[in-house]
Amino acid sequence: MNESSRFVVLGVSGGIAAYKAVDICRRLVDEGCHVAPILTSEATRFVGAITFSALASEPAQTELYDVKSRIPHTRLGQEADVIVIAPTTANVLAKIANGIADDLLTNTVLASRAPLILAPAMHTEMWENPAVKANIATLRSRGVIIVDPEYGRLAGGDRGAGRLATTERIVEAVLSQVSGRANDLEGRRIVVTAGGTKEAIDPVRFLSNRSSGKQGHAIANAAARRGALVTLVTAASSVDADEGVTVVSVETAAEMLDGVHRVAAEADVVIMAAAVADFRPANPQGHKIKRSEGVPSIMLEPTVDILASLVEHRRDGQVIVGFAAETDDALEHGRAKLASKGCDLLVVNDVSEPGVGFNHETNSVVILEAGQDDVSTGLASKYSVANVLLDRVMRRLAQ
Ligand SMILES: Cc1cc2nc3c(=O)[nH]c(=O)nc-3n(C[C@H](O)[C@H](O)[C@H](O)COP(=O)(O)O)c2cc1C
């Protein structure tokens, strides 16, 4: 996929101008955006979801309670680089201004930190109604970008203010929000590791950790959308990588070491987001240990430090990124790890904080780099964190 980081959620609400959103959708796709349409149920009275599905980068969605998707009300908002709603009805304006979330579109808006662009369209009387004006003022004061409607012919032959802005103006507003990262990693070879490795005690039991692999997968997807050639070496049990990502599934630290080294020699960047076991059972049993055998003593032995071995075999100009999940004095431990491992960037998170790290949809990290200011993401979706990290990797590659 070459849509890079131009992940656009295109909201369509139920006004007569909904048919114009079809053209906006097509133009955004032509501009290289990954377009995910969401239609309100009223919008589907004016134009069919199937039309958007045929033109967009993924099927149009209309339902909040969609059994196929585990968390549809947050996924699109978290992944979006920008949300644009065109047309925006007076009704949707009012709901967003008041934080109402009673359908997929308004939930997506509420569950997103992406820039929001609204292109209102309605009859002049509605557009000039004090309630609508107050909602517009509230939304502008919160940083929402309003693409003002124009004067012209309206539904039913009336003329006045309230006609949807031109497709050009709306597409331009979207592109100006997302163009910074467009294809900036094109042709770069990036290896990302993800997930917690599993180390066998016997054929049915293993030692592992709480890593879900979500952050690593988000990095792989974000890098692929920015044009990189991505190999994801993952120990995560569920893999939701984009089509363009080459996935290598592994289970143990030893398999991960082998999998990473097979591809790292060719890579411009290696991002070690996986939670690799530091220790493994020294004598895994070939048969299931029975309760009747008594409580086993499990001797542990160290695994190979993959990050250190990558640094040792680093090729010229290669950028190596390490991760440190900590529970106390995270920054202090992170700085020590950056210095001792010799990687270029170290991503630290304090997994004891709410919403941070293992299995959450969100993360909050500090990116450390020797001689540079720390970059702190604050609590954000793992996809946003991925893009902030990739911005930093990009800067490092350019040095
Ligand atoms: C033929 C027709 C055209 C409409 N056009 C508009 C419009 O341009 N703008 C608007 O705000 N509402 C318009 N409405 C009213 C909306 O459809 C109505 O407020 C609806 O509840 C909006 O639902 P939604 O905001 O969830 O999409 C129109 C209604 C009809 C029947």
Structural notes for this entry:
It is a single chain. By secondary structure, the protein is α/β, with parallel strands linked by helices. The chain folds into two domains: 7-181, Rossmann fold; 189-398, CoaB-like (Rossmann fold). The chain is built from 14 helices and 21 strands. Helix 1 links the parallel strand 1 (7-12) and strand 2 (34-39). The protein is elongated. The relative contact order is 0.10. Residues 13-17, 40, 42-43, 89-92, 121-122, 126, 155 line the site of flavin mononucleotide.
CATH topology of the largest domain: Rossmann fold
Structural class: alpha/beta
Determine the strand fraction and express it as a percent band.
15-25%
CATH homology superfamily name of the largest domain: CoaB-like
Ligands and ions found = flavin mononucleotide
Average pLDDT figure: 91
Output the strand order for the largest sheet. 12-11-8-13-16-17-19-20
Got a strand count? Answer: 21
CATH architecture call of the largest domain: 3-Layer(aba) Sandwich
Short description:
33% of the residues lie in helices and 23% in strands. The chain has helices at 20-30, 43-46, 49-55, 72-79, 90-97, 104-110, 124-127, 130-141, 167-178, 214-225, 253-264, 306-312, 330-341, 382-398, and strands at residues 7-12, 34-39, 82-88, 116-120, 145-146, 150-153, 159-163, 189-194, 199-200, 206-207, 229-234, 246-249, 269-272, 279-281, 300-302, 319-326, 345-350, 362-363, 365-369, 375-376, 380-381. The strands form six sheets. The protein has an eight-stranded mixed sheet, with helices on both faces. The protein has a five-stranded parallel sheet with strand order 2-1-3-4-5, sandwiched between helices.
